[in-house]
Amino acid sequence: MEYNTEREDLKIPEYGRNVQKMVDYALTIEDREMRNAYVKLIITAMYNVNPDAKNIVDYKHKLWDHLFIISDFKLDVDSPYPMPTIQESMAPPQPLSYKNSDIKFGPYGKVLENMIEKVIEMEDGDEKKLLIALIAQQLKKSYLQWNRDSVEDELILKHFEELSKGQLKLHDDFKLNTTKNILGGNKKKFVNQKNQKNGKNFSHVNGKRNHNPK
């Protein structure tokens, strides 16, 4: 099995790639209410990765600080704490301990499983419906990160049914994002990151794209 050298480096490796992907996805959510709701799930996921964090002084504040660091300080949400400065973030994070537990489906990791369990416990309402839909979309996105060929929507919905033990229901008219759109978005993001890494900066002048070295 070859290691994928094109995978982007994790901002805080202790939280794992699933949390990184969730934060990246949150940055694409245009609706502020939806973004705030999704970020609450991310914070829960970060805590589930390290449940012993509650023994740390101001652990909730620490989780929010790490969230902003993972987002490269680009995440615009209603946080209970002010966004840390880049200087404050330079201190290395404390090592995290991990719970040993079985993962039902490898592509999704334990974080998404824990998120589903949390949503099951929520009271019915618009926020719960929104989170159910966001998690289903994230399942397909995570699966395509694992297997970039393709995946049938029926398989994702079947996995969603199994992971939620049939306790979370999607709207009858719910549709998963197409594989083309998901992979296309990932490819565009990778190209942009690669250009930035190589020190390329493009500007548009008179309708033409010029290459301006930094």
Could you characterize the architecture of this molecule?
With 214 residues, the protein is mainly alpha-helical. The protein has one domain (13-183). The chain contains 8 helices and 2 strands; from the N terminus they run H-H-H-H-H-H-H-H-E-E. The protein has helices at 16-26, 32-49, 59-70, 86-89, 109-121, 126-146, 153-163, 179-197, and strands spanning 202-205, 208-211. It has a two-stranded antiparallel ribbon. A hairpin with a 2-residue loop joins strand 1 and strand 2 (208-211). The radius of gyration is 19 Å and the shape is globular. Residues 1-5 and 200-214 have low confidence and may be disordered.
Concise account of the structure shown:
The protein has 214 residues and is mainly α. It is built from 8 helices and 2 strands, in the order ααααααααββ.
- Overall strand count: 2
Identify the overall geometry: globular
Counting structural domains, the number is 1
Spatial arrangement of strands, main beta sheet = 1-2
Radius of gyration over C-alpha positions, nearest whole angstrom: 19 Å
Structural class: mainly alpha
Mean pLDDT: 79
Describe how the helices and strands are arranged.
Layout: H1 16-26, H2 32-49, H3 59-70, H4 86-89, H5 109-121, H6 126-146, H7 153-163, H8 179-197, E1 202-205, E2 208-211
Antiparallel strand pairs: 1-2
Helix pairs in contact: 1-2, 2-5, 2-6, 5-6, 6-7
Annotation keywords:
single chain; 214 residues; mainly alpha; two-stranded antiparallel ribbon; 8 helices; disordered N terminus; disordered C terminus
